[in-house]
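On clarity, I found the account of how folds are encoded harder to follow than it need be. Since the whole study asks how a given chain folds, the encoding of that fold should be made plain. For illustration, here is how one protein appears when written out as sequence plus structure tokens:
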Amino acid sequence: MKKLYNLFLLPFVAAACCITLLTLIRAVTDLTIFLFFGLITATVAVAGILLKKYDELFSDRNCKIFAGIFFACLFAVQVFYCLRYPYQPKTGDYEAIYTAVREFVRNGRLTDSNLYFLHHPHQRFSFFFYAAFNYLVTLGGRLGEINLTATTILNAILCCLGGCLLFVGVQKQAGSRCALLTALLFCLHNGYFASNNFLYSHALSVFFVCLTLCCFCFVVQEPEESRKLFLILLLGFAIGVAKSVEGIITISLVAAAIYFALNAKNFLNFLLRSVLLAAGFLAAVALISTGYIWSGIFDFTNAENEKLPLTHWIMIGLNEDGGYSEDDYQAMVNLPTSEDKRSYASQQIRERLQRMDVQKLLELCKLKEEKMWVGSVYGYHLGSTANRYNIGYKLALYVLILAGCVQKLSSWGHRRLVRIEPIAFGYLWIFGIFLFALLWESSTIYLFSSMPLLIFAAGKTAGSLLLNKPE
């Protein structure tokens, strides 16, 4: 199994090189991106040097205090941003969820918005969460319209709590100083300022991805077998809840199963862990799905015919730019039955593939990976400078992750693994997202919910390179 992991590093490094190269090509066109990349990299390097040099100052207790200060500052900036620049949903999913929450708080039910949630079932959890919060805040609508400012502050709290969970997880697995580096990287991500003004699952998913990573760290560090098995069950449950918020997080379930397979003592050991992981996942999905039905909020009368087949998103991914297409979406939702939708999507997939030769297919793959990993969604929310910062920030993460992989490959023939490093879970998850971008509709919005994963991998790599901490 350890040889398989070493072999896996080769395609992963190839994918990491591709992602880093695409981002570098984008940075070449704008030196401001390089400036931000240099500032972020230098900040992490200086922090690492200080953490290594001053052991007494950065004790476990003090690292927790510094992390608390980081997250308090992040929260203050988030609150300032959402008060200073209140976001008003105008288009797309933001408008749809905002409208649905407002309708529910006013009337206690959904009528006009129900169709949206039949087409986008992954948004039901976000609606449920925000509607419940605003229903409480407005005392069932008796205090007037929903309080959008209160909702964005709630998002800020959840984001910072997610960062705290990530700190606790990394601290458990790699120590306080490595966790502090990870917390610093988390707070440097400017996307979390903008996310608090989104009534959208991508803001909410940050917390649940951090929860998943924290659970994983506790699993790998637990020495007692019975407690480890219980934690694996909780990990599966956490992934199931996270999947209900953002579908792409399902990749982490596969990553966890592969990680357990690589570390399994024997087949029975792997089977037990896999069954518990799947049981926790299915329990969470079933519980949430049952909650949707019992609530009576959604009308599932015509759900089967309105539901969009999975092939719909593959079809959209094969259009000219590999991203979302409103024309494709409208053509699909106007078809009356589920069978018509599946047939139409399959036909379009065949026709689009037949129209492409190998060169065009490779160009489309390049474009889709570029959309996923290089693009920035903060242009009209934070401005072009923030866009450049965000790309420079992601480039710093990619370089850190790639440096860690290259270090492993350089010592390939010399190192003997007692167990597969926990960071392998992060590598498997990232590689899954890379493959997902090739298959699915591609957008950098999908990457937003997985940013804690990149921060986790980059932070642990920084800890390994600068502090000699285990990964």
Observations:
- The chain has a mean pLDDT of 85.
- The CA atoms of residues 83 and 103 lie 24 Å apart.
